[in-house]
Amino acid sequence: MVKKNIVFIAKSLDGYIAGKNGELDWLHMIPNPENDDMGYNRLMEEVDAIVMGRTTYETVCGFGGEWPYPKHVFVLSNSLKDIPARLRGKVSLINGSPQAILDQIHEKGFFNLYIDGGTTIQNFIKEDLIDELRITTIPILLGGGFSLFGDTIQPIEFEHVESHLFLNQLVQNHYKRKR
Hints:
It is a single chain. By secondary structure, this protein is of the alpha/beta class. 20% of the residues lie in helices and 32% in strands. An 8-stranded mixed sheet has the order 5-4-3-6-1-7-10-9, sandwiched between helices. A two-stranded antiparallel ribbon has the order 2-8. The radius of gyration is 16 Å and the shape is globular.
């Protein structure tokens, strides 16, 4: 069985995924009148489930409205104990090391995963568990905030697959892990 872990995320020119105070409003600074999904729907066709950190989950819940994910979401948390009734069957809590988390999710029949959330992405990268990166760069310098990539023990090589230009300003680069 082929297994794949994909990061699909946006970052600023200086490599941040959230501002100094966690702000995300800059992600929508470029008008998108046609509601271009920028590859998101294609990603959802490729993955079986989503793995995200607690902070990302709480941020999404704070947006209100309908739950935005068409796939099952596994939320990594040691502190959350329950999922709201409206999300039961759509969201599960899970914890452990990145590899233990993957093992548990694979046992449930989910093999191609969208990995989301800053700390979650960094932890999976540190254990060399990311197979693809799809990173959209927003043309803004935030000057600080939450960095997409933390320190790694050793270099981790990726090869460029393709680039796409969206809304005439956003560049999405797709990389695959060199193994």
